Amino acid sequence: MTDTLTHIDEQGDVRMVDVSQKADTERVAVAEGFIAMKPETLELIASGSAAKGDVLACARVAGVMAAKKTSDLIPMCHPLNITKAKVSCDPVRAGERADGLVGIHVTTTCGVTGKTGIEMEALTAASVACLTVYDMCKAVDRGMQIMDVRLLKKDGGKTGLWERSQECE
C-alpha cells in the first residue's frame, strides 16, 4: 500500500494515473451494499408484486450496466475492458442481520485483465443496484436507506490480494 495519493501530482493537481508501463494482470474485486426497508416492502419485492416489475432482476441488470459505465461517472477512473460483472441481490428478512434490519443485500463481482484495478466498478455496481431498488420501490417506501457499500476483496496487480477483515469494521 502506498502512503501517497496517486491521483494527485506534485503540484497538488488531480490527474489520471499513467498505467502505460504496468503489466496486464488478472484482477477481480468484490463489493457489497445493503438497502434497508420496511418488511412490507421486502415482501412486495420478494413476491414479485411491485408495480414496476421484477425489482431484483432490474437491479442486477442496472448493476452490470453501471460497472461498464464507471469511467464515465468517476473522473479519474480508467475505462476498462471488463471481462466479468456479476450482481446478486438477496432478500434479508427479520432476524438475519445482527442489527435487525430487513432489506436487500447486494454483492457484486467484477473482473478484468488489465493494467489497473476494478474496485471502482464493483463498488459502482453495488451502489447502482441499491439505487435501482430504491427507484423501483420509492412509491411505497421513501424511507429506504442505502448503507454498507464497501469493498470486500480485491486481487491482482502489484499489491495482490486484499480482503476486508474484522479490524476494518
Quote the CATH topology.
Alpha-Beta Plaits
Secondary structure: number of strands: 5
Name given to the CATH architecture: 2-Layer Sandwich
Query: The biggest beta sheet, please?
Result: 5 strands, antiparallel
Mean pLDDT across residues: 91
The total domain count is: 1
The name of the CATH superfamily reads: Molybdopterin cofactor biosynthesis C (MoaC) domain
What is the 3D form? elongated
> What string gives the helices and strands in order?
EHHHEEHEE
- Low-pLDDT segments, ≥5 res: none
Strand content: 25-35%
CATH class: Alpha Beta
Strand pairing plus helix content: what structural class?
alpha+beta
Helical content (DSSP H or I, runs of 4+): 25-40%
| Tally of helical runs | 4
Return Rg in Å: 18 Å
Terminus-to-terminus distance: 19 Å
- The strand line-up of the biggest sheet is 2-3-1-4-5
List keywords for this structure.
five-stranded antiparallel beta sheet; Alpha-Beta Plaits; single chain; Mopterin_CF_biosynth-C_dom; alpha+beta; EC 4.6.1.17; 169 residues; 4 helices; MoaC
Write a structural description.
Substrate binds at residues 76-78, 120-121. Keywords: Lyase, Molybdenum cofactor biosynthesis. This is Cyclic pyranopterin monophosphate synthase. GO terms for molecular function: cyclic pyranopterin monophosphate synthase activity. Pathway: Cofactor biosynthesis; molybdopterin biosynthesis. By secondary structure, this protein is α+β, with helices and mostly antiparallel strands. It has one domain (25-155): Molybdopterin cofactor biosynthesis C (MoaC) domain (Alpha-Beta Plaits, 2-Layer Sandwich), CATH 3.30.70.640. It contains four helices and five strands, in the order βαααββαββ. The chain has helices spanning 39-46, 55-68, 70-73, 119-137, and strands spanning 25-37, 84-92, 102-114, 145-155, 162-163. The protein has a five-stranded antiparallel β-sheet. A hairpin with a 6-residue loop joins β4 (145-155) and β5 (162-163). α2 runs antiparallel to α4 (119-137). The protein starts with 24 loop residues before the first strand and ends in a 6-residue tail after the last strand. The mean pLDDT is 91.
